[in-house]
From TrEMBL:
It holds the Pfam family LptE. This is LPS-assembly lipoprotein LptE. Transmembrane segments: none annotated. The gene is lptE. Together with LptD, is involved in the assembly of lipopolysaccharide (LPS) at the surface of the outer membrane. Required for the proper assembly of LptD. Binds LPS and may serve as the LPS recognition site at the outer membrane. Belongs to the LptE lipoprotein family. It is a lipid-anchor. The keyword GTP-binding does not apply. Component of the lipopolysaccharide transport and assembly complex. Interacts with LptD.
Length: 182
C-alpha cells in the first residue's frame, strides 16, 4: 500500500469503529446523568445549610420520578446521615521540615431505610482523597485550591451516592401466611 494512503486508511478505520459503536446503542449506565431509583419518594436527612445535601437533592430532583419528602414519615426511603467529615493530613515535608504536600480527605457514612424502618442499604462509608501540593508563598491560593478540591470531592460523592441508591433493591413485601386448612 502507498505510504501516503496509510494515514487516511487508519483514519477511516477509526471512524468506522466509532460509527459502529454509536450505531449499536452502546452507552454506559448512568452516563446521561439520570438513574432509575427503586423508590418514588425519599427523605434526605441533611440540614438545610449542608452543601452536600443541597447538591444531592438537586441531583435527585433531576430524576423526574423522584420526590424529595419534607418529613421522613411520608417517604418510601430515608437517607440517614451517620457522619460527614473533612480532613487534612501532612503527606510530605521538604528538607527544611516544612509541609510540601497535604492529603485532603472527605468521608461520608450513611444508611437507607424504608418507611417502616427496614434497612434497604446498610451503613455505607464513602472515603475520597486528593493530594495537594503546598507552598508557603501562595497560602491564599492554596486555600482556594483546597476548597476547589473539596467541592470536586463533594460532586464525586454525590454521584457515588446516586449510583448506590440506584443499585438498591426495594424491600421485599412481607410474606403473608397461608390460611390454615381445616
Amino acid at each position: 500500500m502507498n505510504a501516503a494512503r496509510l494515514p487516511f486508511a487508519r483514519f477511516f478505520a477509526a471512524l468506522f469503529v466509532v460509527a459502529l459503536l454509536a450505531g449499536c446503542g452502546f452507552k454506559l449506565r448512568g452516563s446521561n446523568g439520570t438513574y432509575n431509583m427503586p423508590f418514588h419518594s425519599i427523605y434526605v436527612g441533611f440540614p438545610d445549610t449542608s452543601p452536600l445535601g443541597t447538591e444531592l437533592k438537586r441531583n435527585l430532583r433531576a430524576a423526574d420520578s423522584v420526590v424529595i419528602a419534607d418529613k421522613p414519615e411520608g417517604a418510601d426511603a430515608q437517607l440517614v446521615v451517620m457522619s460527614e467529615a473533612r480532613g487534612r493530613q501532612i503527606l510530605s515535608l521538604n528538607n527544611l521540615g516544612r509541609v510540601r504536600e497535604y492529603l485532603l480527605t472527605y468521608t461520608f457514612t450513611f444508611r437507607v431505610t424504608d418507611a417502616k424502618g427496614a434497612q434497604l442499604l446498610g451503613p455505607t462509608e464513602i472515603r475520597l482523597s486528593r493530594n495537594m501540593a503546598f507552598s508557603e508563598q501562595e497560602v491564599l491560593a492554596k486555600e482556594a485550591e483546597a476548597n476547589l478540591l473539596y467541592r470536586d470531592m463533594q460532586s464525586d460523592l454525590v454521584q457515588q451516592i446516586l449510583r448506590r441508591l440506584a443499585a438498591m433493591k426495594p424491600a421485599a413485601p412481607a410474606a403473608t401466611p397461608a390460611p390454615a386448612a381445616s
